[in-house]
Amino acid sequence: MRRVNGLATLSRALSCGGGVEKRLAQAALMSTCSSSSSNSHIFSQKLADRLGLSRPSLARSVSWTMLFSAAASSLAQDAHAKEKPPSEKFLPKEVVLYQYEACPFCNKVKAFLDYNNIPYKIVEVNPISKKEIKWSDYKKVPVLKVDGEQMVDSSVIIDKLFLRINPHSSIPDDEEKKWREWVDNHLVHVLSPNIYRSTSEALESFDYITTHGNFSFTERLVAKYAGAAAMYFVSKKLKKKYNITDERAALYEAAETWVDALKGRHYLGGSKPNLADLAVFGVLRPIRYLTSGKDMVEHTHIGEWYSRMENTVGEPSRIKE
């Protein structure tokens, strides 16, 4: 019982914002890390006796408490990055996203919605019939309906939503604009040659697409094998179109280019993700756990940023029906 009470006393000492107890605990930690002073031995032994602990137990207790404090501080930073200023001017009653599950542009929009905790419904569009968007003159995805208002084009959608959430916000800076354009004009074009690089990877990708997509049983079988075969050959044309000689090398180069752009910052936006961070994360999220995405994380330095974004964006705010 004496040992338990001592640990509790020590924990309270380290958790206080200041005062004698905190200084004593810090002094105790310093005394256990150095053997150069006999006075430090005497002081730490007296403190250990006072708390009902042996000196080794005191050292372990201080170390574990400080480790816990560091971990808590890290989690608090992630939570801070997720925090959003309250928006009284954007409280939509219904948000519906018409999408293909694996579409990188659709996933850009979802990353923005998830990060901003905007609840939304998903309508998975059948890529063969597209019957779900026959009501719209726009025949591509994503299409977003916000309280009945149609929005199209992923970047335009995000800009409109951003201004509604942050009506007094300034125009994004040149750096943010540059990297958002880089996502649309370069990064997305590197993805298809990678996820359909080989027949096995094409089948892996279409297994994911057909599992999450809006297909009947027959369409799923046809789409998986016929689609994988078709996209395998299409990816070779895309590879030539965008002057890609080595698919993986191009993917790794793009990942490292993004890491270099961060310049040691947690996010391109600094302490919080900006729209460029969300765009990169969004287009990479569908491939992260495919073979190409695993290879990318293993062979580049993007993994730490990606994991940070994954934690900060958090769970999808999608409404499941």
TrEMBL record:
Entry annotated with the keyword Lipid biosynthesis: yes
Pathway connected to this protein: Lipid metabolism; prostaglandin biosynthesis
This protein's GO CC annotations: endomembrane system; mitochondrion
Database matches in Gene3D superfamilies: 1.20.1050.10, Glutaredoxin (3.40.30.10)
Topology of this chain in the membrane: Single-pass membrane protein
Family membership: Belongs to the GST superfamily.
The name this protein goes by in its record: Prostaglandin E synthase 2
Native source species: Hibiscus trionum (Flower of an hour)
Lineage: Eukaryota, Viridiplantae, Streptophyta, Embryophyta, Tracheophyta
